[in-house]
Amino acid sequence: MVPKEASPARWESTMMPPGQILPPLLLLLLLPLSPAAPCSPQPNATRFVCTEPTLSTFPSGLPPTTLAISVEFTALATLPPTALAGLPWLQELHLSSNRLATLPEALLQPVPTLRILDLTNNLLADLPANIFTSAGHLQHLVLRGNRLQALQPSWFQHLPHLRWLDLAANALAEVPPAVFQQLRSLRSLDLSKNRLASLAPGALAGLQALEQLDLEGNRLGTLPPAAFVPTPALRLLFLQDNELQELPTGIFHPLHHLHVLDLARNRLRALALPRRPPGPALDLDISGNPWACECQLLALLRQAAPRLTATRDTLCASPPHHWGQEVAVLSQTGDTGCEPKGDEQHVPDP
């Protein structure tokens, strides 16, 4: 902590005889201290990290050896077009939790080797059409927690190596058909906590390598019957906290590799799943839906029992003789009213 500066009058009255001139060194000590620039770059460093809350200007003078930049939790509101000039080997750029409302279109042109771009928790309502044109090696793109209202196909036209795309917690109301058509390497797509009321046919076109899709916390009331035809490699599908009332017959049939399916807290009454090939049981969450506990549903849930999740307040809404019973418990008991008479044991096909 810098000590409070004493007034010259007090120094003169307590330390110096009248008429005495202060020595030059002591005079320098009495001058107000200029605050040092926050987060000064180090020569020949490969990583630059700054989390200084008062920082409002992107640091300059970064050495050309820089491979990773992390400027996060600062007051940074704008970036000059030349912010990354002279950094030809930059691979990671982390700019989360700042105050960025816009980005210059030429920002990424000087860094063609960039692999990771994190813009989480800024104020971005839109992006320049060609912002990623020169970022062909980008693998991870995180735009979570901004104010994006629409997706532009041009953003994703030149990202053949992108593997991770996080668009969660924005204000997206739709996913245009084929907007991700060129993302042939994408493995994970997060669209959770947006304002999606529907998913357009062809919205997932081109995502043949996609393994994880998160649509949690939207306003989805239904899904197109062929929604997942373009994503045969999908293994994890999160649909919880939507408004799904029914699912088209056969909607999950293309997903032969599905391991996790979360349908919790929707308005579903019935469910149909394809027969599973030998392998791990499906990890299925059906909590918080008003299920109609008919024989077909109970048989299906019995097959999924090893990995079934259903909270205790997940109760049968119908038929009358099962009303109010716990779905998970009922599906595992033998007294469901679905057992055939006599010695024949047959479980209805799901």
TrEMBL record:
Limits of the LRRCT domain: 289-339
Leader peptide range in chain numbering: 1-36
Q: Which Pfam families does the record cross-reference, listed alphabetically? A: LRR_1 (PF00560), LRR_8 (PF13855)
Swiss-Prot/TrEMBL keywords:
Leucine-rich repeat, Repeat, Signal
Q: Which SUPFAM superfamilies match?
A: L domain-like
Q: Name one GO cellular component term.
A: extracellular space
Q: What is this protein called?
A: LRRCT domain-containing protein
List the lineage, top down: Eukaryota, Metazoa, Chordata, Craniata, Vertebrata
